[in-house]
Amino acid sequence: GMGGVGKTTIMKHVHNRLLKEDKFKKLIWATVSQDFDVRRLQNDIASQLEKTLSDDKNTTIRAGELLEMLRKQGTFLLILDDVWSSFSFEDVGILEPTTDNGCKLVLTTRSAKVVREMDCKKVQVPYLLTDEAMQLFLSKVGQDMLPNPNLESIMKDVVCECGGLPLALKVLG
């Protein structure tokens, strides 16, 4: 979905909710970002497993080591946030989730192309409806602003301009 629609926020809620459950032995969160770097991603995942990868080995060797770490981990949920381009899970060392190993992988991206290329199931995050957008905006501005008829018209225009994007509504609110 579009930037600011709430992909990361939704995944933070999912992550935090799952922390309270025993569904996975490990929850792993890694922000990939536009300047994707295999070594950085490998390090991020390994550090959340409380392990380290050798800096003097090439990425292929490190991928094999990370894969083994994940295998030994048992069930895990790996959240890859802010993915801008597709990459090979194998090249990073990410264990392929299967029904047998009980592991899950979720990624957030703005690109439908990335979803297709990485063979993931697409879940679209919808924009807020006008009423929902107004409620979010008012929660940031303050409900006491609504009785003012002059401000109400301006607020409706602002909410309309935000196009149902929660981040824009929060920032402007």
Automatic annotation (TrEMBL):
Q: Which UniProt keywords apply?
A: ATP-binding, Nucleotide-binding, Plant defense
Instruction: Classify the source by domain of life.
Output: Eukaryota
> What one GO molecular function would you report for this record?
ATP binding
Q: Please, one GO biological process term?
A: defense response
InterPro entries (UniProt xref)? Apaf_helical (IPR042197), NB-ARC (IPR002182), P-loop_NTPase (IPR027417), Plant_NBS-LRR (IPR050905)
The protein here is known as NBS/LRR resistance protein-like protein
Q: Name one Pfam family in it.
A: NB-ARC
Q: Does the keyword NADP apply?
A: no
> Which parts form a coiled-coil structure per UniProt?
none
Specify the NB-ARC domain's residue ranges: 1-144
Give yes or no: UniProt keyword Nucleotide-binding: yes
